[in-house]
From TrEMBL:
It comes from the Eukaryota. Pfam families: IgGFc_binding, Reeler. Keywords: Signal. It comes from Ridgeia piscesae. Residues 24-43 are annotated as: Disordered. Residues 9-173 form the Reelin domain. InterPro entries: IgGFc-bd_N, Reeler_dom, Reeler_sf. PANTHER family: IGGFC-BINDING PROTEIN N-TERMINAL DOMAIN-CONTAINING PROTEIN, IGGFC_BINDING DOMAIN-CONTAINING PROTEIN. Residues 1-18 form the signal peptide. This is Reelin domain-containing protein. CDD domains: Reeler.
Length: 1271
């Protein structure tokens, strides 16, 4: 008899008697011959609340906005989970709905009849533990043949501020960092629990095919000895993550064991981990410092930002990283990364897009007493502010207490002395004498460790390091266990810290700690309220320590010593988020990956000196730094296709190169093609590999085919395609693809054989594609033998790696065709036999709409071409485009305007809304070098600081190849290519501010690396080449592909074109009204969105607004409701901004209800204050060290003026790095070393109002006597 698993059947189709069936997994109705709608769904899901805790309830409402519905299927799923597994359960189904089982009982809600419904509301029960971010997903049937599938709700996040959160849990992901020992033993896991019955534990290391099951209870210790090869080694990535799942809560202690080199750590459950950490360690001479990271989800991007205030240097993949540099790695679930260096890693900032676990320590020295140490790091959100420490017992040398900050200007108080720790990632050490205890506090959360130093008498142990639990994270009870030493047994001690009033209520294994052997209770010096500490010797095995009053808490740290080795770790701790906002407010550094303003979003603003998110603050949490981007042409996975050309005899080719200095393995395959093609190559550093593909992979006709090509690599690569004779372009990696595109092309008319082509390849199964043909141009697209026009959008479904080629049936120009999809797709555009001077093919991969920009510059490649054609296409309706001072209005998305330029003429293009720009080069004459290559011009907002690119090697021999770079004047001398300074023909680009220049130089075939030596300088880069035949290539060497749809003009980082860009309006206004309407006085901040074509402003603390009213007449108005024609102060003026109003303001007199001229109303633009030409900085403590005047220099540094004191060799400037930004007086321009600092972010020294810090006795202290005076 054949047995079939019932749950598997249920997960495929869930029948509902008498009504339309809907699949549990795909959520696809079982209506044959129909496809879902790809337009915006008229149905929404409303969720309340937007967070959940274990076993909590969430109210879910499915609502029709503009149409009723007849059927639905509703589930909750984990965001990003591809298993289609429903989560949680529904209860109390409403009328016309019923509960069903897909995987478990009541995990799905479905319609019970097909009556018309406006909305349904149901209660959902969260699972018994946090499972990460969730979303509700619904398929809605308007009728049998009209439906929308997988409509998603807003994300529901786990509430980490409530519910039981501690170091006990049910799900853990762990790793073991390297150890240096003559005899490294197997790593061990020790399990304890408060449960009286058996808890089932599963330990897995999938990459090593390791799996073990065991049980643990309050009376029975759990133990697992792992394989030695689970331990990391060296610097780099591996796949050694350990997954632990349990049936009830346990505590886990990891023991990294080696002969004379054992240490341990307290493991943290997954739901207590975070996305932001700082490394902290204590590294004796000769030890290798270590950092370990393990990912909990696929596609986890980790940035490790090196601190600027030490001499840390790290070599990874042949590159040397130092102060302020960022090491970036991408990890999948259970992948691990280890970093080793002989320098101290303390202060290294770790940020990631997904939750990770992080470890810090050092390897030890391979001698008779190696002294390995390790801690599992606490995420920043769970740091504390008050601490009590007692020294490790039996030691001859003092302990070291080290703490690290996460916020600037953190004040530490210890022994009654206060000191300021000025920067985030800053560390401070103090000595804890043997036999003593101390208490210390900070005003902002910090992380602290206790380091036991090497002992002259090795019988009492060796080096060990433990996290110091903050008092805020103390618990009322713990279970813990003691490990075995590598050579014999440890002497085990429990260090107990508790309020003096509660010392007699602490019990260990049912015995009073007060009455137990060991030290007597010793006072903790400086503690308030008073605390005491005691060490208690404990036997080998599992123990239970607790308070009789469960409402009170205490701390426990475990310590053990044996011959030449020691261990230490906390007995446990709560894992509360200390700040109510869930994070530590901190000054922002662009793209630092931190929630600087604690609003739940990371880097949500654009660094453009504007209030983008409407919270009254400017750039308080803004996006990536100049020259860097999160999406670009470098990647490790690509999907491509080859559309038709006029030269089908030419083999399609790929050019592969890598920015890496180590070998990269690249695999090219056709996963679904009938004739499988697979090729694997090893790509060597600084080499380009040419791969020739079969001609059969060129798409023909207008049907769906399986000719998608997948390219994968073990590290990032740059991939270029060559199609036809010379059509060459860079390929966009999957990570940077989009789901919305506008197609760009060119065909001025000509040969009847010309055809416009659009190629599309899907990155996921069940990808619904819609092609919307542009208005008023008469284009007809053919698909599968059917013609489609502007009145009939083309809709089709593609599975992963399937391709389709759409072909014009009449007009070959398909510009403006919009491609929409529900998943990521790659889109290619081309024309067979177009004409731009000569006749040839053009082909290009389209960039997603989200990468479009507003400002563009291009300079011709001089003698090689006679001219250029530029096409500018709007992304939005009602877009105004300015080209060299001439304006053109584009009424709808996809509309375009064309312009011609001479070969040597620079061109500047701007628009008030994002546009896409393409350039087509015109060759000299038929039979001479050149052709009509097409290149998409990158917006200046997407320029980069460095590029790796490949100059192609085609079937014909090129006359020459060129590169053209666009950069701010004066910066071109700092550009280097392949280690050599770039020199070439320079041309000034007029009407730009700052002054831009173009530099052209020849470049050889092959792989090249070009960069500016200063990381914050961006430039654009293009390539062009001609062949002896009628042939040419042109493409951008690279660009950022970030989503900049909300980006505004950036004063300090983006280029501003004087001839066609207006000045950015005032950001901060100070308003004074001293007579009739005094309540409107104060500071106003410019809001994100303008109103009626003018900037709008919001009071920083009150519900007051300033905006332009556009009624029968236009006037500026102060009111309490934004946009309403009701207010109390006005000015009849159409000035571009309120600070430019020239007429007298009028105020409403409430005493007689009349409007009156009010001379007391004045407005001042604070951020347009005149820059100081000279200034002095004085005060009692600094007047001797900083005498004389500082004179304004010509250069601008980090968007601020810089000054020089030539008499003393000092500079005053604005410093920016990943750990903060501040004004500083220093001896080296641009360095972070100085005498006086101020963290005010004012754009002008006149506007500095923050507190000054001066360096005294090696510490930064607040100095209220410092005065800055402009002269």
């Amino acid at each position: 008899m054949r047995l079939i698993q019932v749950s598997a059947l249920l997960s495929i189709v869930m029948p509902v008697t008498g009504v339309t069936d809907i699949s549990c997994g795909t959520m696809q109705p079982n209506s044959r011959g129909t496809t879902p709608r790809t337009s915006k769904s008229p149905y929404t899901l409303v969720i309340s609340p937007s967070t959940y805790t274990p076993n909590s309830q969430v109210t879910v409402t499915l609502r029709g906005q503009s149409a009723n519905f007849k059927g639905f299927l509703l589930q909750a799923r984990v965001v990003g989970d591809t298993s289609n597994q429903p989560i949680g359960t529904f209860t109390s189904p409403p009328l016309h709905a019923q509960l069903r089982r897909c995987q478990t009982a009541d995990d799905t809600l479905i319609h019970s009849d097909e009556t018309s419904k406006k909305e349904i509301t149901v209660t959902w029960n969260a699972p018994s533990k946090r499972v990460g971010d969730l979303e509700f997903v619904v398929t809605v049937l308007q009728s049998v043949n009209t439906y929308w599938i997988r409509v998603k709700s807003p994300v529901v996040t786990p509430d980490m501020t409530s519910g039981s959160m501690s170091t006990s849990g049910t799900d853990f992901i762990l790793m073991f960092i390297a150890i240096n020992s003559e005899e490294p033993g197997p790593p061990e896991l020790i399990f304890t629990t408060l449960e009286s019955s058996d808890v089932h534990v599963t330990v897995e290391v999938p990459s090593l095919s390791y799996k073990r099951s065991l049980t643990v209870s309050m009376s029975s210790l759990g133990f697992d000895s792992l394989r030695r090869d689970v331990r990391m080694s060296g610097t780099g990535k591996s796949n050694k993550g350990i997954l632990v799942t349990t049936s009830a809560e346990v505590s886990i202690y990891g023991i990294n064991k080696g002969l004379y080199a054992t240490d341990g750590f307290l493991a943290l459950p997954i739901d207590t981990l975070g996305k932001e950490y700082y490394a902290i360690s204590y590294t004796p001479d000769g030890h290798y410092c270590e950092l370990g990271i393990v990912a909990t989800k696929d596609d986890t991007i980790v940035h490790m930002i090196l601190p600027t205030h030490n001499n840390l240097r790290i070599t990874y993949k042949g590159n040397t990283y130092q102060q302020g540099d960022i090491i970036a790695v991408t990890l999948d679930k259970l992948e691990t990364f280890q970093l080793q260096t002989s320098s101290d890693l303390t202060g290294l900032h770790i940020v990631s897009n997904e939750i990770v676990a992080a470890y810090s320590g050092h390897t030890g020295i391979e001698d008779t007493s190696p002294g390995h140490s390790v801690v599992q790091l606490l995420p920043v959100s769970r740091w504390g502010k008050s601490f009590a420490v007692t020294s490790f017992p039996g030691r001859t040398n003092d302990d070291i207490i080290r703490l690290v900050t996460s916020a600037e200007n953190t004040t530490l108080t210890i022994d009654g002395i206060q000191m300021v720790l000025p920067f985030k990632g800053w560390h401070h050490n103090f000595t804890l004498p043997s036999g003593s205890s101390k208490y210390f506090t900070t005003d902002k959360p910090v992380l602290a460790i206790q380091h036991g130093q090497d002992q002259s008498n090795h019988a009492n142990g060796d080096i060990t390091t433990a996290i110091v639990p903050s008092i805020e994270q103390y618990q009322s009870e713990y279970t813990f266990a003691t490990p075995d030493a590598s050579d014999g047994n440890f002497v085990n001690e429990a260090l107990v810290l508790v309020r003096t009033t509660n010392q007699d209520t602490v019990y260990l294994d049912s015995a009073s700690v007060t009455s137990m052997n060991g030290d007597t209770w010793q006072p903790v010096g400086g503690s308030s309220p008073a605390m005491v500490a005691k060490r208690v010797r404990v036997t080998v095995g599992q123990h239970h320590i607790y308070m009789k009053d469960s409402t009170e808490t205490f701390g426990v740290v475990l310590f053990g010593y044996a011959n030449k080795e020691s261990y230490s770790f906390p007995g446990g701790m709560e894992m509360k988020i200390i700040n109510s906002a869930g994070c530590v407010p901190s000054p922002a550094f662009a793209g630092d990956g931190t929630d600087n303003d604690c609003d739940g979003s990371v880097d949500e603003e654009t660094c453009d000196n504007m209030d983008n998110d409407g919270d009254g603050l400017i750039d308080e949490d803004c996006n990536l730094p100049p020259g860097q981007c999160s999406l670009h042409y470098e990647g490790n996975e690509f999907i491509i296709m080859f559309i038709e050309t006029a030269t089908p005899t030419e083999d399609p080719k790929l050019f592969v190169s890598s920015p890496s200095t180590s070998e990269v393995v690249v695999t090219i395959e056709t996963p679904v093609f009938g004739k499988p093609f697979t090729k694997t190559i090893v790509l060597y550093p600084r080499r380009t590999h040419v791969i020739v593909l079969p001609k059969e992979l060129i798409v023909t006709g207008t049907t769906v085919e399986k000719k998608g090509i997948l390219v994968r690599s073990t590290d990032d690569i740059i991939l270029s395609m060559q199609q036809g004779l010379c059509g060459t372009f860079n390929v966009i990696p999957v990570t940077a693809l989009g789901d919305n595109y506008l197609v760009m092309s060119w065909w001025p008319g000509g040969a009847a054989t010309s055809r416009g082509l659009i190629g599309i390849i899907a990155a996921e199964d069940n990808t619904y594609v819609r092609a919307i043909i542009p208005l008023d141009v008469g284009v007809i697209l053919t698909y599968n033998g059917i013609d489609y026009n502007e009145t009939q959008p083309l809709e089709l479904v593609l599975n992963k790696f399937e391709t389709v080629q759409l072909q014009s049936a009449n007009v070959a120009d398909v510009t403006g065709t919009k491609i929409e999809a529900n998943n990521k797709v790659a889109v290619f555009s081309g024309v067979v036999s177009t004409t731009v001077g000569n006749s040839d093919d053009i082909v290009q991969e389209m960039t997603p709409i989200h990468a479009a920009g507003t400002t563009f510059v291009h300079v011709g490649f001089h003698e090689e071409v006679t001219g250029y054609r530029f096409r500018v296409m709007s992304v939005h309706s009602n877009t105004t485009v300015t080209i060299s001072g001439n304006e053109t209005y584009l009424s709808h998305a996809g509309q375009y305007t064309d312009h011609s330029m001479s070969s040597a003429e620079p061109v500047g293009i701007s628009a008030d809304k994002p546009v896409i720009v393409a350039e087509f080069s015109e060759s000299k004459a038929s039979g001479t070098p050149g052709g009509p290559p097409m290149v998409l011009i990158p917006p200046t907002q997407q320029y980069r600081n460095e590029y790796t690119f490949t100059v192609p090697m085609p079937s014909t021999v090129y006359n020459s190849s060129y590169l053209m770079l666009i950069i701010e004047g004066g910066q071109e001398d700092q550009i280097f290519m392949d280690g050599n300074q770039v020199q070439g023909q320079r041309v000034d680009i007029v009407d730009t501010s700052p002054q831009l220049v173009g530099v052209t130089t020849t470049v050889s075939a092959g792989r090249h690396h070009i960069y500016h030596q200063f990381h914050d300088v961006k430039f654009g880069l293009y390539l062009y080449g001609t062949a002896r035949e009628v042939c040419a290539f042109s493409f951008v060497a690279g660009m950022c592909l970030d989503d900049i749809r909300q980006t505004k003009v950036r004063n300090t980082t983006d280029f501003k074109y004087v001839s066609f860009t207006v000045d950015v309006p005032c950001t901060k206004l100070t308003v004074k009204s001293t007579t009739l309407q005094q309540s409107f006085s104060g500071q106003y901040i410019r809001m994100k969105e303008p109103l009626n074509g003018r900037p709008a402003y919001k009071h920083t603390t009150l519900g007051r607004f300033l905006y332009l009213i556009d009624a029968q007449t236009k006037f500026w108005l102060f009111g309490t409701e934004l946009g309403k024609n009701r207010g109390l102060i006005l000015a009849h003026s159409e000035a571009q901004e309120p600070a430019e109003v020239k007429v007298t303001w009028r105020s409403y007199d409430t005493s007689d209800m009349t409007w009156k001229d009010d001379d007391s109303v004045s407005l001042q633009c604070d951020d347009k204050a005149t820059t100081c030409e000279k200034l002095t900085i004085g005060g009692d403590m600094v007047s001797n060290s900083i005498p004389g005047e500082f004179v304004l220099r010509s250069n601008v540094l980090n968007g601020r003026p810089a000054y020089e004191n030539t008499a003393r060799g000092l500079y005053f400037y604005y410093f920016v790095d990943s750990n903060g930004q501040f004004w500083i007086v220093g001896t080296k321009l641009g360095a972070a070393v100085g005498l006086v600092v101020n963290t005010d972010r004012a754009t002008n020294p006149r506007l500095i109002t923050g507190r000054w810090l001066t360096l005294q006795g090696g510490h930064w202290v607040v100095d209220r006597d410092v005065q800055l005076q402009c002269m």
